[in-house]
Amino acid sequence: MVCSSNQNRSMEAHSLLKKQGFDVSSYGTGAHVKLPGPSLREPNVYEFGTPYKHMFDDLRRKDPDLYKRNGILPMLKRNSSVKTAPQRWQDNAADGPFDVVFTFEEKVFDMVVEDLHNRDHVLMKTVLVINLEVKDNHEEAAIGARLALDLCQEIEATESWEDSVDDVVSGFEKQHRRKLLYSISFY
Amino acid sequence: MVGMMTASLINSAKLALDVPSKLEHLRQLKEDLLHEGPVLLSQFLPRILDLHTDRLSPVRKFIAQMIGEIGSKHLDLLPEIIPVLISLLKDGTPAVARQAITCAIDLFRCTLEKVAIQGLYSSELDVSLESSWEWMLKFKDKIYSIAFQPGSDGRRLLALKFVESVILLYTPDPNGSSDPPSNQPSEGKFVEFNISWLRGGHPVLNVGDLSIQASQSLGLLLDQLRFPTVKSISNSMIIVLINSLSVIARKRPSFYGRILPVLLGLDPSSSVIEGVHISGAHHALRNAFLSCLKCTHPGAAPWRDRLVDALNEMKVGGLAEQALREVCKINGSVLEGKDDSSIVKEEKPSVKSCDAVHVTLGRKRSGVHDIGDLVEDDDVSGKRVRTASTVAEEPSKESSRDLTSVQNVSPIGLKSSRGDEDTGPVQQLVAMFGALVAQGEKAVGSLGILISSISTDLLAEVVMANMRHIPPERPKDEGEEESLLNMGSNASTVGSDTQAKRLPPFLARFPQIVALLDAQQSASNDIVKSQGEEEHHVATVADSDLACGDMDCGTEQGMDSAGVPISSNVLPSAIENFSATSYEIHDVGNLESIPGLDSTAHDDRFVETLAASSLASADLEEGSQEQVTSLGRRSQLDLLPSMSTDRSEELSPKSSLTDANSIISSTETSAGLSSQFVLPKLLAPVIDLTDEQKDLIQKLAYARIVDAYKQIAVAGGSHVRFSLLAYLGVQFPLELDPWEDLKQHIMSDYLNHEGHELTLRALYRLYGEAEEERDFFSSTNATSVYDMFLLTVAETLRDSFPASDKSLSRLLAEVPYLPKSVFKLLDCLCSPGNSSKDEKELLSGDRVTQGLSAVWNLILLRPPIRDACLKIALQSAVHHSEEVRMKAIRLVANKLYPLSSVAQQIEDFANEMLLSVINGAHATDRTETEGSSTELQKDSNLEKSSDEHSSGSAIAKEIASDTQQSCTSQTISSSSISEAQRCMSLYFALCTKKHSLFRQIFVIYKSTSKAVKQAVHRHIPILVRTIGSSPELLEIISDPPPGSKNLLTQVLRTLTDGAVPSPELIFTIRKLYDSKVKDIEILIPILSFLPKDEVFLIFPHLVNLPLEKFQAILVHTLQGSSHSGPVLTPAEVLIAIHGIDPDRDGIPLKKVTDACNTCFEQRQIFTQQVLAKVLNQLVEQIPLPLLFMRTVLQAIGAFPALVEFIMEILSRLVSKQIWKYPKLWVGFLKCALLTKPQSFSVLLQLPPAQLENALNRTAALKAPLVAHAIQPNIRSSLPKSVLVVLGITPDSQTSSQTQTTQAQIAPPQTGDTTNLDKEVVTEKAKESSSAS
To answer: Which residue of A has its CA nearest to B737?
Structure first.
């Protein structure tokens, strides 16, 4: 599960899939972890690897009301229960190989595909990269995570996705009326 | 011992039943085996291989993986292993087959590497290795067949990957070393294998053959993507193919020429399988193009234009630009290195030239495969080699001259780009060249013909025109600048000739053309007659080539072994040239950008330099990309123009920069006369600025650009540039707030600066930004800027323009969307005084109209926000200020209500407000305090709270209503009435549009407070007059809700007031009167339109009404309406009144007498004549009306002159035996008394008994009457009996009789008698009369 800050969308999906017993990791592709701040010009910026707990404490200290209201604190709390800290996709190439990579934004998809492209293909193991466009807000993230779970289960159900990815994807698109973008890369 | 254990492991693996335990055993087995020697391995291998038929697929997969690993470590075992793997390829489980292919990729590389390296050192190969290789090749063929034949996608994907790796292995890596690693082959992984390690004479491998094979494989891959085949493969295949090809293209740029045409020609839509997947392939294609674009290899350069085109078509032009820019930067720095080295006498040319040769090699080879006619080309280039080598001399000097020529070209290019844009044939030629070049190698022939057929002058023109399309770039390093300086000084020494100088850039752009062109020239020198300059140029090219150093021996070897006689000189030279050119391009970019910026400041020049300015701003925008690496440079760039403009205004150079500056201005004026000296100096000052300064400079620059638009507005053609300005704003760093400047610009003169257009562009750009960026941060950012921008503009429009101006509503109607703040603004506009009181003066009624018309516009044009706008309008329609309210109501009722889409909402709202009046009535005080606040929420709150009250505390309500009633008109203050009006006006307005709504008012009427009722009554006349007696209204009238009588009456009154009611209306009212409402009042308004007899019929009821009402009716009936004559004459009225029988009609006598009195009060109507007439008629009635005598008495009181007439009446009464009506008899006597002495004669007409009775009753009459009767003339006329009664002739008998009668009659004398009494009296009277 990859989104840009490894906070909302990817973590929502991570959390859900983890509950469903999937072996799942989540990453962000951005340069930093950005969270909305008191005003537009003052976002809260953290490095990848900063524990969610730390952010939680930090923001709670700054303005508990604001961050509670905009759902940041609950989100961070949820995140810290899933894993320690946000991870950057590009910096964690050693993880994996994954079977399927989910991205929630085309920009992220591009970055993942390119990153995979630029790695040395040693294992020659195929990896399916799927982009499911999800808006970066709490409600959409929850919907997106459920869709991702659906899709994962469908892929899981096939004997080898390489043979049937087209069918799975088109079936999903028809069922949920969401556009999917996928690419195949190698480890 | 180890053997034993291994054997047991194999056995247990074989025997284990479930997958995990089997795998566990096998994993252990693998561990053991890999650590053991080859002996043990070869011993157990067959047994392991046996396992590949295991029924469990995970086991088979693991076996495949295991033997793959074993194989890569022990290549000698391959002959045994590979057959197994081959059989596994056909395994039923795709995962197993995939594993087998994965192993194959590894094994193939290992084997090839080993074979190659062993062959380097010995002429013979191991037998085992050789057989391994053979097996490997067989394996390869199998996989190829999988890759290129239809089958399971899972297998094919990996097979394709295998093909890709084979191609890569078989072709030389331009970035790798061509020398085999000095380490021993066992550590082969250390360095990536490169086929160029191979030398001629390898026992098995031949570079040429391998290349051919690779090329064939590539052909097969490409075929998959060509038209008929591409339809039959799945999308995932397409994606993988595209990815593989882009990898190959990137790693082996020599294949660009083959791969890109196919990719570019691949239209993803033609490969639609189910219509849904295009995006995937599309995307892959896009990424492939981008990565190809980023490739820095010179061989990729010719394709850039087409790639950019293709990307632009895919609407990712921005990305392409960015990629291109990155590439250019890299190229720039690389080239700089090259230039340096060439000047410093070529110390390390090996790598470079090697690259170049590889490119040549690749291209030529592919050419051989693809196009036969390239042989000709080869011949030509062969010639070229000779030419080139003959002219070789003094490398360093030549190269510098080459560069110089490039230097000289740049100003020319500049000139052309600045000058007239359409040079007619030249443009066409450029386009033709472009088209030909785009076709790749196929068009080489025709391109050659084209070049040879045009004149050199024209060719030069074409080159110049072409310069314009070279993307702007800028130099990267300071070292470069130094070298430039050197070159600059060199340049001055070298005699320049334009012909030669113009060629290089063109040639550099089209390396292939270079080859052809040169060939052409050298082949037919005398024909073309292009002087020595051509040759000179050729020499330059060749020299620069030679300057790169001697041919690397490795390259030569490679060529030899390939066996293709190629002139490696041609293309490298072109490439070298290219590098020089692209360097020069930088300069052009710079030069162009600077004058451009300058010109934005110099107004007079601006219009001419359209192209330049756009380039300049593009540059600026690049600069604002905030790329750390180019920060310093950008600021420098920005600094220059801004400084220069400042200075040039003063014209007094002071700082160190002024040199450069003055040169710039000279550049402008003298179109590059001295620019070859200028260039280096321009770049010289490098000043590090602080962040603040940079910000300031950026801001200044932006302000300047914005400023320049003022001139544009005058000059026209601004629509082209609007988008640019908006785009700039988006690209600008946020902290600098470029929007502020833009806003000010727009505000300063909205009309003349085409503010509307500009605002829209800016807003759309921002909107796009907000929608596109999906991360929280930037989208919210753009949104807020958008909001602010729109709000400010809207506010300014509101404040600075007259209210009649339509700009605001137009703007709001056309912007992408309306944020909340704008709604608020509109709300304030439409309902002034809500937010801040002091704005009130500012917002006059016209403003309200303006706001309302804007809202109306929005409702019509923007359905999505219709609700919000409607709310604003409705809110305004219940505004406390009547002026505002009426305006809004007019809008809502006349314009909006007819729209079916919003009608219901409007109705609901009006209804709600109407109901709120009822519910809110008892909370009058509250509504008063909150009267000014008309926000919907508050209203609904109010409603709610009042609901609570009504349900929760009935007592409180009662108290409230009590108090309300107790305090009369004072509490129904004007404010509460106006409050009621505020809420109801809208509803009333709607009623005029939809009459059926009217009923609701009737329904609620009963439960409303007095104030509300009053408000309703105020409204009704206007309303009803507008409606008229429509069917709906008639329906309401015919069935009025209970409690609405007053209202109904008013309605009817209004309806009949000043107009003839329709027959339907009259009919309805009568029916209503007859059936439901017995109240006579509803008939009053139509009385004058009723037939006379009906009026008579209902007259008693009219009399029964309260006096004042009766009076009104009286007037009404007597005067009639303006359209109809009087219903009744006064006489008729009086007669009608007298016709009322209190008992029969159930009307108190008092009412009747009151009615009479009323009549008598109006003497000018009920005149003497009228009364006489009435009395005349009445006296004829039988029986006489009860009030007859009363009326007679009143008549005398009112008109004493009637006495004579009355006497006549009295005497008629006497003849009618008035004494038989006791009540009247009393009145008669009264009258007689009143009218004495005239009445004496009448009295004397009475029969003696009645006379006696009369005299007894009214003693006062006796004496005068006797006196009257004594008169002799009268006395004589009187009968004796009368005289007796009078006492003139005494008769005791009669007197006693009379006394008894009198006693008997006496009781009824007192006041009003009952029926019974009357009868008794009548009987007695009869007796007495009969007795007498």
So the answer is: A41
